[in-house]
Design goal:
single chain, 269 residues, alpha/beta, Rossmann fold, four-stranded antiparallel sheet, 11 helices
């Protein structure tokens, strides 16, 4: 039997092959009698940024959570349909659930840094997943992740003593993204990265996603057409838990075919 690291290495090798990274077919999500997602189907491919557009309550955040099996932790949640990671259903009970969540990493809208220093936030993940135990092995990995999210120069002199949860909100969110990158995900899910008091400014977000999509697929949710236009390759419009339109972002924003999508775009221009 392959251990989790062997499986992960095997999956990384598969990223060079053609085909979708994730295939969603007939996905549904209910809470009791309330339908949150209905008959959602789409593919995610390597090297693209896909934006989930929609108003509050349209199902964007829940769709992200279904992709890495965190929706099932919510009370009364029932997920139907299939989500294939490569060619394997993520609901397969023989899968290692922590491995799925390492491969499909979610940064929630409400960020969750540990109440400790930047160093300890990132080093903890390396130790937990047995990726690097010695400080000498951790140092280059931590620096590389912080450089990738563009904050190394901001935090390098306070790595070991400044608690992350007391830093400015945007810095907290970027550190959470760096922490996820330590696990080398194939898919990164960002819930509302450009809204709220902890929003990542558009220029920084654009540069970050342009870099990240070189070796992973990125999905972000936002109600902002401006964000979608600037950072995404494809856009999906959700309304009432359904994907009404999915196409190249430029086409969705300038020539939407679905009347509800067209009305949404016109109302938010």
């Amino acid at each position: 039997m392959l251990d989790s690291l062997s499986i992960r290495d095997h999956m990384k090798t598969e990223t060079t092959q053609a085909g979708p990274v994730i295939s969603v077919r007939g996905l549904g999500l209910t809470f009791g009698r309330t339908d949150v997602l209905q008959d959602v189907s789409f593919d995610l491919v390597q090297g693209e940024v896909t934006c989930l557009l929609g108003a509050f309550g349209s199902g964007k955040s829940m769709l992200l959570r279904c992709l890495n099996r965190t929706a099932e932790e919510l009370p009364r949640a029932k997920q139907t349909g299939t989500v294939f990671l490569r060619d394997r259903d993520v609901m397969d009970p023989t899968w290692d659930l922590p491995l799925i969540r390492r491969t499909v990493a979610l940064i929630p809208e409400v960020h969750n840094p540990f109440p400790m220093s930047t160093w300890d936030n990132l080093a903890y993940v390396l130790r937990l997943h047995r990726l690097a135990k010695a400080k000498a092995d951790q140092e280059p990995l931590i620096e590389a992740a912080l450089r990738r999210v563009g904050i190394w120069d901001d935090v390098k002199d306070r790595l070991h003593h400044a608690p992350v949860h007391r830093m400015e909100p945007m810095m907290q969110r970027l550190i959470c993204i760096a922490r996820a990158l330590m696990l080398e995900p194939q898919i990164l899910l960002l819930d509302e990265p450009s809204s709220g008091t902890d929003c990542i400014d558009l220029h920084r977000l654009d540069a970050l996603l342009a870099d990240l999509k070189r070796d992973m697929s990125v999905v972000l949710s936002t109600p902002s057409l401006k964000v979608a236009a600037n950072v995404s390759d494809r856009a999906a419009h959700l309304d009432g838990g359904r994907v009404l339109e999915l196409d190249a972002t430029e086409l969705v924003l300038t020539n939407a075919q679905n009347p509800t999508t067209k009305a949404f775009v016109e109302a938010h221009c």
